[in-house]
Structures are given as C-alpha cells and as structure tokens.
Amino acid sequence: MSLLNLPTNPTTGTTAIVGTKNYVWNGNAWIVASNYLFTSTFITVTGTVDSTSTTTGSLLVAGGVGVGKRISCESLRIQDVLFESSSISVTTTATTEIDAFSIDEYRGAKYLIQIDEGTGPTADFEMIEIILVGDNQGTVYATEYGVTTSGGELGDFSADLLIDNVMRLYFQAFTSTNKVIKLLRTGIAA
Questions:
Q1: Hey, what long-range contacts does 73-78 have (CB within 8 A, 24 or more apart)?
Q2: What's the CATH fold of domain 75-189?
Q3: Which of 140 and 189 is assigned the larger pLDDT?
Q4: How far apart are alpha carbons 109 and 50 in whole angstroms?
C-alpha cells in the first residue's frame, strides 16, 4: 500500500489530488471530496446547487475564467441578463407552446428563432426575431421582425400572459410536416 503523501500543516480548505481522488483538509482531517472528480483530461462536479448569483452554485471561481474552446449549457446568466436556448419538434398544425417564463423574473424577452422543415433539397428554413413584453393587466405586446425564409413562412407565432404571471410563446404550423424549432431567449431581470 502506497502512502498518500498529503501536504503537512495544511489550512482549512487546502486540497490535494492523489490519483483521481481529491482530498480536502477540513481543519481536523483529510477527507475525500465526493462532489467532484479530477482526471488527466477533465474535472467533473456532481453537486446540484443552482446558481442564482456570483456566490452560489456547485462551482465557485473567485477570479476570471478563461475558456479556450466552447461552453455548452442550457442557460447562461450575466448579471441581470439570462440567455436560454431550447429545441422542440412540432408535427401538428395545432397551436403549440414553445416557450414560457415568469414575468416576475423577466418582464419581457427577445427571441431568435430558427425553424427547419424537412431534409435534403426540398427542406425549408425560417429565421425570425420576436420581442415580447407584458404589462400589469395581462396584455402582451409583440413585435416580429427580421423574417428570413428559404421558401416562405412556416407558421404563425402568438403569445399570452395569464393570471399565473407566466408569459407563453406559441407556434402554429401551416402544415403538419415535422419542424424542428430552436430558440434563443434573452431576458432582462424585472
């Protein structure tokens, strides 16, 4: 059995990596940190604490973070702005909810939406930008612009704001062929 070779005279919070295990000095003893794993190619953090500020979450970094390649995430919050993306398939001409958010958190949103319909040389594509804002009486104000298509618009958009203070964005396709709708929502804190 090999010795762990941990640092002597550590301060609380000192970490040491031995193999693929991370040890943390808790002030009395070295303990194995079970919420993250180090390997030669990646770090895995398995904590599930959601971040609501720069001082909360499963991983906190006091300084800056440099990223040499891409960051993949479902949402990204920068101060009072939240970027969220999603994707949904629509195969019906019925009105379909494609996004929703609470106006208690964000008064309105700007969307960049891409719709793909079909494959190969007969495929159609649409890009559109939509801005939504809701008032205190439940009215939604919407502006659609920047519509660009390869073969015509693929459906209509609408929105509502119900008593639950949730603003919903809907899409109603013109045909029942499969459409993949990808959207990026930018929201500014209320």
A1: 77/51
A2: Immunoglobulin-like (2.60.40)
A3: 140
A4: 22
Alpha-carbon 8 to chain mean position: 42
Q: Is the CB of residue 165 less than 8 Å from the CB of residue 136?
A: no
Rounded Cα distance, 52 and 22, in Å: 26
Model pTM? 0.72
Reduce the DSSP state of residue 19 to 3 states and report it: coil
pLDDT digits (tens, 9 = 90+) for 33-62: 766 665 666 677 777 888 877 788 877 777
DSSP characters over 52-77: SSTT-SS---SS----SS----SEEE
Buried b (16+ CB within 10 A) or exposed e, 67-96: eeeeeeeeeebeeeebebeeeeebeeeeeb
Q: Quote the DSSP letter at residue 120.
A: G
Question: Domain spans of the chain?
Answer: 1-66, 75-189
HSE toward the beta carbon, residue 114, CA cutoff 13 A: 6
Within 13 Å, how many C-alpha atoms sit on residue 103's CB side?
22
For 120, list phi and psi in degrees, rounded to 5. Answer: 70, -160
